């Protein structure tokens, strides 16, 4: 998360020569103190805020496509016409300005008032929607329903004690001490009442009564639904090891977990992180930022190799070693006691704090008890509807028919969960939209962001463009000559273009 870019470039109220702007140009300028992006799409010009409403990404460094602008950092997408955040991870709109063309020049005029609330035009609007979950998919669905003008009852049931938070940040800036806690909620608490969203925290849903169309809470109370969204996410895997239940041994999923790690870190000198994938390594980086000595234990030969391949795996390892992390690879823990972790190799590591980031398991118990079709996740169709009509699933639990790979896939990515929540919202209103977003995730290690578009569980060729060590590369994962996924470091436009190519390839099919 960084501060918003300050106003720079030309004063757009003074007029810009139309012929100086190529037909698809983007120009960063300002109106007063505000950075504004002037975008030309053929004969039309648009003026929108230049700063992404997600983490303040510089939209002038993204791309314009059709009537949208896409953020270079995490691929949010905004309407140029209305400023609406049409694709997560951004949820709030951009400000928009009126534009006038006169005497061969284009002038940015007054700031437009916020777009009026949408009038819902949907075929089968239910009266009661219930969402189980308080995470990425659940929040995005609730927000989208109200954004579309859904007027009925909307209940969100979450067994967490905190309102929806920016979960990816729990292992990054927040854990590192670089983001204050008030950045963490996705919306202030007042938002839910204002939007008529009945958010019930500490509410564990025990089962779904499909016959009566009710969800049943732990205390036996029932909440009726006409449409139901299951967005129960995933839970950290807990290794069956002696000592895993000691108080200094943590996993990380919730704000409460992250707070507990921070509290323990403040009294610790040495941490051992179990697992060398995304969460484990982000935790390692954040604990280094807090000045702890950090050791990482993992069975893999290289960090992240299974997802990013050997070349990026070696890079990630070297990057963490540069920052003082010590790896114990091809080794696993045997037991943990109050002061030490004993490894299968016979080594022993001092540890005041242990964080296990060894993967997650989708929380499918509710879906299973409701009799929904499962296959390593909850099976949904292209509209994210489960095998029981009226019940939808989104996020980490959902396995959907991915039009890009042609396979049924389930992923554990923030942006995918949010976008699925948004699509599920439209489909609960009967709009029948296919979920066709290209999977995307990002991961941050110190000052190095890795962006990944597509889905490549296996490949037969890795194509490297650029120089990984110089932190300037695009790594393509191919099977049978076809690009399945692209990982980039500091090649944001290339990542956006790769996403676009995959979208078009699927649309042409
Ligand atoms: C520390 C961390 C860092 C991450 N960083 C990244 C990243 O950088 N990039 C990325 O793409 N992804 C990242 N992820 C993954 C991403 O956060 C998940 O893919 C995403 O949150 C999934 O969204 P979801 O809505 O499916 O589940 P969640 O966000 O986990 O939400 C599930 C919700 O369901 C609730 N719930 C579960 N069961 C019940 C029940 N029975 N009754 C009531 N409520 C229930 C939970 O309390 C929770 O509120 C990270 C995850 C973690 C933990
Ligand atoms: S900063 Fe724009 S999508 Fe994250």
Write structural notes for this entry.
This protein has 509 residues and is an alpha/beta fold. The protein contains nine helices and 36 strands. The strands form nine sheets. It has a six-stranded antiparallel β-sheet, with no helix packed on it. The longest helix is centred in the middle third of the chain and has 18 residues, at 305-322. It is globular, with a radius of gyration of 24 Å. The two termini are 37 Å apart. Residues 52, 54-55, 57, 71, 73-74, 76, 89-90 line the site of FE2/S2 (inorganic) cluster.
Attribute tags:
single chain, alpha/beta, 6-stranded antiparallel beta sheet, 509 residues, binds FE2/S2 (inorganic) cluster, binds flavin-adenine dinucleotide, 5-stranded parallel beta sheet
Tell me briefly what this model is.
This protein is α/β, with parallel strands linked by helices and 509 residues long.
Q: Which molecules other than protein and nucleic acid are bound?
A: flavin-adenine dinucleotide, FE2/S2 (inorganic) cluster
Largest sheet: 6 strands, antiparallel
Helix share, percent: 10-25%
Average pLDDT number: 95
